[in-house]
Amino acid sequence: MNSMVIGLASGSIEKLVVASTIAGGAVALDMDVDVYLLVGGAYAFRRDVADKGTYAERPELQDEMLSGMALNGVPEPLESLRKLHTAGQLKIHVCSTAGKIWGASALEDFVDIVDDVVGIAEYLDRCEKAAIVQVL
Description:
alpha/beta; single chain
């Protein structure tokens, strides 16, 4: 089976929507998807941060983007990723160093769809074996 790796280095709403859209497309094509949460991605998935919204790369456009998403039925990225995770073809991993940067080193520090906390060597190994690698 083909597989995809997404390295999510940003926690911005823009990149989270892109990551969830790409992951959804890959799962629809029957691919296994591994998302590795790197620095900003790890922050966005912290349990105490995820439900409070995310920051934007262009804060002046955040309200417009969120309004456009709501108007067009584009789900929140965490909701989309949660559905994909439940379907079983999506795994989410946190880089241990990224977690430590944000004071979150244990699995329970992150939202419930995070599968594990791993070293960067695992991410690099998966990148080497994947058919497609995206870094956002």
